[in-house]
Amino acid sequence: MDGDGDGQSRWCLSQVKGAVDDDVAEADIISAVEFNHSGELLATGDRGGRIVIFQQEQESKNLPQCHAEYNVYSTFQSHEPEFDYLKSLEIEEKINKIRWLPQKNAAHFLLSTNDKTIKLWKISERDKRPEGYNLKEEDGRYRHPSSLTTLRVPVFQPMDLMVEASPRRVYANAHTYHINSISVNSDNETYLSADDLRVNLWHLDFTDRSFNIVDIKPANMEELTEVITASEFHPLQCNTFVYGSSKGSVRLCDMRASALCDQHSKLFEEPEDPSTRSFFSEIISSISDVKFSHSGRYMMTRDYLTLKIWDLHMESRPVEIYQVHGYLRSKLCSLYENDCIFDKFECCWGGDDSEVMTGSYNNFFRMFDRDAQRDATLEASWESGSPGLPLKTWRVCAGSRRKRNEIGVDCLDFSRKILYTSWHPQDNIVALATVNNLYIFQEKLN
Amino acid sequence: MLGKGVKRKLEQEEEDGVMKMEASHTCYWFQRQTVLNLSLLKLHTRPGHGEPDLARRVLITNTLRHIQDELRGEECVSRPQTPSSPVIKDSFSTALAEIEALCPTVGITALFSTSDQDVPDITSGTDSDNLGELRDPDPDLSEMHSIVDSSISLSDSAPFTSSHAPSSLADFSLDDFLFTEIDNFLFDSTPCSSSLSVSMVTDDLVKTLAGYGNGGTSQSALPSNQTFKLDLNELDHIMEVLVGS
What we know:
The complex is a heterodimer. By secondary structure, chain A is mainly β. Chain A contains three helices and 33 strands. Helices cover 3% and strands 42% of the residues of chain A. The two termini of chain A are 26 Å apart. By secondary structure, chain B is an all-alpha fold. Classes of the chains: A mainly beta, B mainly alpha. Chains A and B meet through strand 7 and helix 3 of A and helix 2, helix 3 and helix 6 of B. Chain A: GO terms for molecular function: protein phosphatase regulator activity.
């Protein structure tokens, strides 16, 4: 399955955010992308520990034919670099994951995490300020009591919109190893955080305690052969969560069964195909991302070469397997040499679960239509055509290219990779990050 | 850049069946050797200022272990009497030679950082225990033991540990090559690290000392035992200069 027949997709480029320079500062490299639950806000995190939130342009939101236009709403420094004096090691400020909380009032809340510490941020707007104080001048100085002869009540006057981000909670010192996932529970009170060997459960209101719910650390570290790579709560059942491992298996756990969920309730594992066995079989089977469908009925896993859709009722094998970039199978040795084989790609579901997407190399990303059983390879680049024009689809061929929209596998640029992606919860708008640019694509509606 | 993969050759397909089998066997051996070299290199490369990625190290180690199991299986099948078959010796000698050439870093940090445990005791007493453990029937665990027990992963600047010095190459088992300190095989160094406060030695200092010991020529090769033969007084003096005491 390799590309549309007509060479054109329904997607078109809406916006590109970020600098155009070839020289990218390390701190500007985007490391997290996430829409909020309404799709109105889009948050990105970078290696410098900053978070930039974009807001959907209000007018364009109501006109589906218009481009999905997102503008900067708030920018703040979420995490700072730290130094672990005990181990003489730096703790990177790079944002690993961002997860939004469902909105309860006018303010927006999100969780952001680096390798060690999770923070709850409150983003609130201020567009009015009180003026006409009785006891204070406009500049804040207090008036002399003897000059007060009248009484007046301050009134709110409009001011320029100010968006403030303030840290409300800091959840620290609960992870010995690097945090790879956070997931907010459907109960809207708890969330989980997972590192290489443990999964912890937190209550949002309490920063001084967390409950360990999964611990796969062996008594002897010499016996360690498997680590946790991703974890997520079920979108509807607050007692259910999954975690994926470096050996390609996903375990579903029920927190009602026991306090420590080391015994899984379900184990999703596809038996290995002996004909494709290689030195790299285990590495390419490592789960880089796991995402539940919106319905909660299915689960999607991403490993190095494939996307797999699992029915939660069937553990023995996935119900659908999609090849992301199967042409890399013969290049695994080189990819091992240049470390690309360890790249962790994310994946995401479309709003109605009928489509899924994930990133690849050469700034390609892959769209899979589950219903129509079609897929497309699209490119995120400045030359993706003018906004509004449909993207052309690409095809990667083994030898040298023969047609216009083809590229030889040996010409792929492995330094340009799309690891982080997010799909608008309702509309067909996707956001993805190349090295330092944020791309927003919208489905073209005719 | 496609690395050391063997290029597809039209001639290969035209050869008769027997030669094709031999060719593919050589290809397999060659690729296994490449993966072995790469894995050793990746494990022994200094990770930088941050903490090494545990998931990556686990995956590389598992790959290495798989190759080791394969090689051990071939060894048992081909020549059960001799201590080690030439094929395997070649694999590891080649790997070691390449590591020596490519790896300027000194010493081996632990494969898995024991970050939430107490600092292991780095004395020669511990390592003499490891010597016994290396002859264990289960070499997999024992070699991991020797790494972890001589763990110095708390700091990148503690490259040396006490060594055990096997008398000759023939005494080594397969696992010694794979998992114990490579530079201790290549250089008959004295187990002096525990007596010096080597844990305070930084990378720069090591290179300085190596350069000092080699007559000022700066080399990024593994430091030789000449480094260790520096006078203790000179080391103290240098430390004083650095620390400013």
